[in-house]
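Entry for the shared binder. Reason: the reviewer on the internal report wants the predicted structure included alongside the sequence.
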Amino acid sequence: MLAKLRVLLRVPRRPGRALPRRFASVLTGLAVTAGGLLPVLGATPAHANDEVCRPGSGVAVAFGYTLQPCVYQDSDGVIHAKVTSTGGTTDVRLFVQIGTRYNGGSVAWQDSTLTDSATNAGDHVGFRTTPGTDNVAYSSLVNRFVAAPNTTYYARAYLTDSGTRYGDVEAGPIGAGGTPSDGGSTWTTRGEPTVGKLYYHLGPVQWNCTGTVIAVDLVATAGHCIYNSTGHAFGGPPGLWLNAPSPDRFVPNDNSSGGGVGSWYAQDTGWVTKGWHDYHAADYDFGVYRIKPRSTDGAYIGNVVGTHRWKVSSGVSAASTPTYTVGYPGDYSDPRACNAPATRFNGDNSQLRLSCTFADGASGGPLSDSTGTAYANVGGYEQGGSSSYPSYGVVWNSAFDNLVRYLETGGNTSAGASPDAPSQVDTTAPRVAPNANPALASLPDGTFQTAWHGGDTDNPTGSLWIANGSGTSLNGFSEPNLLGVAAGTSPSIVANPDGSWTAAWHGADSDNPGGSLWLATGVGTTLTSLSEPWKLGVAAGTSPSLAALPGGGWALAWHGADTGNPAGSLWVATGSGTTMDRRLGAGLARG
C-alpha cells in the first residue's frame, strides 16, 4: 500500500533565470611576470569561431587609421571587446574598452587594471600601432564579463597621441544571452519534414515538445517529455516523478506557412529506458512514441514524410562537432533552428553543450551532424538547460538503439533489468475501474475534490485516484502512494472546513481476506496522512460511505467482513483526520 508517490501531471517548465548579476569578471588565464600581469593584446581568443561581432558596430578614422570596434559573446558566455585598426600614417597607441548598461541606466566604461606605466602613465590598456598594418586589440582578461540579466554590453575604441584621444567610436549593444557566437545564431525556419511538434494538454494547461520521425511508426523525443519530475515540470516537491499524458497530436513540419501534413496520433504508451524511468539519469533523457497509422488510409507516418537519418554515437570529437538543431520552443509559433558546434559537456561524451537559444518546447529536437544524421536530442543536463541559453543535448547511445530496435521488432531485449532496458510508460488519461463510481465533494472556495477507483495497472485491481478542479476542468490529478482499491468498490470523499479532504475506501490489501477499511487526508492532489485503523475488514464488493459532521470530523458507515452475522454487520464510526474515535458493530447487515 505504501508505495512511492507518483503524480500523473506535467505542466510546462519555463526557463529559469539567474539572479541579476551586474558584473562578473573572468579572472582566469592571466600570465604573471616579474613586472606584473602580462597583457595579451592581439592574442586570439580561446574559441576560433567566437569573433562574431554583433550588429551596431561603428567605424571611425583618425591619423589615417580606420577603427572598427566589436563586442561579442563567446561560447562560454563571456563578453569580449575587440578593435581592429587598418592603415595609419603615424605611430600612435590603440585602446579598446568594454561598457556595461544595467537596467537601462547609463553606460559604465570599464577601465582595465593592466597598465604600461613606462609609456602609458596609467592610461587604459593599449599598444603602439604599426602604420600600414592590421592592428588588433582585445579587452584585458580582467575586465571581460559573463553575460548577466538586464545588462547590455558595448565596445569602445580610440587612439591616443601625446595623451590626447582621437577617433572615439562605439559598437553594440548586445544583450545578456543574446545571439550567441561560434556560429550559434538561432533563427525562425520553416522546419523539416521529419521534425514536428508534439502537443499536450491537461485541463486548461497546454505545452509542447519536439519529436523526430526515426522509423516508419516511431517518433523520438526527450525522455522528460514522457516521464518527468514534479520539480522540473512545475516546481513541485522534489523526488516525485510522473507520467505525461499521451500527446494530443503530432504535427510534422508544423509551421505558419502550412508546411505540415496533418495530425498524427500516438498510441497510449510512451517508451523510455530504465535508466531514465528508474534512475532519472541525464544520460538516458530520450524516449520514443509509437505513432498510429493514419485513420483515413492506414498510412504510416514514416512512409508519408520520410524518416530522419540517425545513428548511435559516441559523442563529439575532443574539440567539437558541427551540429544543426531544429525545435519548437514554446515562445515562438514557428520552428527555430540553430547551427553551432556541439562541445563535450562532461568527460564521457554523453552530454553536449550548444551555443543555441532554445526555450521549453524544443526538448526532444534532433541534433544532426554535417551529413544531416541525428545523433542526439535536446535534453539531458537540466533537461536541456535551466535557462534558454545555452542549450544541452544527450547522445543517442547504445541504450537508445536498444530501445528503438525493441520497438521495431516487438521482440525481447538482452538488456534485462539493466538501465538500458526499455520501460513502458502509460500515457492514457485517467480511467475508472469497472463497476466503480467516482465520489465528489464541494470545497468551501467553490472548487471540488473527487476520488475514484482508477482502472490502471499499478495495482492488480486498480488504484485510488484524487483530483481537484472547478467547473468542468481538472486542475490536477494524482495516484498518491499507488494505493490499491478492492475490485468492484468505490471510494468516498468529504470536504473539511479548512479546505482539506478526507477519503475512505475498501483497500485491496492482504491484512484481511477481502481487504480493509482505509482512511486518508490531503490537500489538492497531495496526500498528507494515511491509516488502516484497527485493520477493520470490509465485505467483498461493498464500499464505505463517509459524511462530514457540522462541528468538524466525520462519520463513517460500512459493511463489515466480520463473523457477528453470517454475511457481515453494519459498522459505524466517528473520527477526524485519519484517526477513528469510536466504532460500533451494529449487527444489522444481512447480505
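Summary line for the report: Confidence is low (pLDDT under 50) at residues 1-49, 112-124, 176-183, 587-591.
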